[in-house]
Specification:
By secondary structure, the chain is mostly helical. The protein contains 5 helices and no strands. The N terminus is likely disordered.
């Protein structure tokens, strides 16, 4: 009986690893899509339109919004391309850590301006970025192409 129980235990041990790997890919895709949309809008939309949609895009932040958009676009690409191509896949968790930093700074900006409802998006996206960074650094790293 113990011999029969051992194989089922080892197969269930490998399943969470595959499930985690798939979960990380889903999170990477969702987060990349969110940042591609947000970054694309910040880079391409006129500043007047952005100011109407996002109250924080005023004064000095108005000029910084383009830079933030470029960082978000690069981060979105970094979440997927290095892992998918397996060329320098260690860039994927670094991209996630960078996007987490953007979300922390965004939350601090919203707190300083009293825009507390805006922090929810920072927490959700930052949480996904933290999950990806942790997962791809420690739990389920992607091996570089041989």
């Amino acid at each position: 009986m113990n011999a029969a129980a051992a194989p089922s235990t080892s197969s269930s041990t490998s399943t969470p690893s595959k499930g985690l790997h798939v979960g990380l890919w889903v999170a990477q895709g969702l987060l990349a899509a969110a940042f591609l949309m947000a970054g694309g809008m910040k880079v391409s939309a006129p500043l007047e339109q952005l100011q109407a949609q996002m109250p924080w895009v005023t004064g000095a932040m108005g000029g910084a919004v383009r830079f933030i958009g470029i960082v978000e676009l690069l981060g979105a690409l970094g979440l997927v391309l290095p892992a998918a191509t397996r060329i320098m896949p260690k860039l994927t968790p670094l991209a996630a850590a960078g996007l987490l930093t953007v979300m922390v700074l965004g939350a601090l900006t919203h707190i300083s301006r009293g825009e507390y409802p805006m922090i929810v998006a920072n927490l959700v996206l930052g949480g996904l970025a933290a999950f990806i960074a942790w997962g791809r650094f420690k739990l389920s790293p992607i091996a570089a192409r041989g």
